[in-house]
């Protein structure tokens, strides 16, 4: 019997009731349904007084999920999708994202399209688009102190009420660079429309095999966003005496101390998105962010 996962933001009533409908429909179609909470991928912020997350990134995969599962349906907003990516990417399970949140930038379908989406899913009328994920590891010497998968971005920045910081950044074999700023963002093309965009970084189409480094409030006119090959590992050394805060995809993170370094590298496990139709990225930018809309002044009837 084909197995289908169901990843639900069970903190939202709408997601839970919709999941009940989907589960009934899939069982009626002869599918075995394995239902889990999206909270399993919400790593949270590590308490510095407790033992850090030394387990590898695959620890987010639910015990009931495996690589033989056909597909997983994700119900929630963009935060739920980011969580579900950590739960499915290590085992290669494709995810169909159905938005029950707000913006839904990462959504493939919406509630008004639910019946059609399930029809296509059951009929096998869908394709897969792969998106790059990163492995973010906190290292102290040769010890891995914390690790998680990242779909959007890793942001490393100062704490409130502290001064500007210095970051020494080594990209692959290239000479290290020093950036003076409030923080730095290392993002994937998927994440180029998230925090990096707000910090002034460019939008990158998802099919480009690159990463981008974006300073946050840089203290130099020479510090600008940098785009480079995603085959290059990146190491960030905090060249400042105070501890820093690292946040990954807005739902995971920990403190970074002066003796630590952050290692970021492309994962061999991309997230696999189910596509029910051709995914036109520019149309998504237009619909969600207003990119490319005409800005034409149209006078009213009084000529103003």
Question: Summary?
Answer:
This protein is an alpha+beta fold. Helices cover 16% and strands 35% of the residues.
Tell me what the structure shows.
The chain folds into two domains: 3-131 and 270-289, Rossmann fold (3-Layer(aba) Sandwich), CATH 3.40.50.10330; 134-266, Tumour Suppressor Smad4, CATH 2.60.200.30. Helices cover 16% and strands 35% of the residues. The protein has five helices and 20 strands. A seven-stranded mixed beta sheet has the order 3-18-17-10-13-14-15, with no helix packed on it. It has a six-stranded antiparallel beta sheet with strand order 9-8-19-16-11-12. Strands 2-1-4-5-6 form a five-stranded parallel beta sheet, with helices on both faces. A hairpin with a 3-residue loop joins strand 17 and strand 18 (252-256).
Secondary-structure map:
Elements: E1 3-8, H1 13-28, E2 32-37, E3 44-45, E4 71-76, H2 78-88, E5 95-99, E6 109-110, H3 114-123, E7 127-131, E8 134-140, E9 143-150, E10 153-157, E11 165-171, E12 177-181, E13 183-187, H4 195-198, E14 210-216, E15 226-229, E16 234-238, E17 244-248, E18 252-256, E19 261-266, E20 271-275, H5 281-289
Parallel strand pairs: 1-2, 1-4, 3-18, 4-5, 5-6
Antiparallel strand pairs: 7-20, 8-9, 8-19, 10-13, 10-17, 11-12, 11-16, 13-14, 14-15, 16-19, 17-18
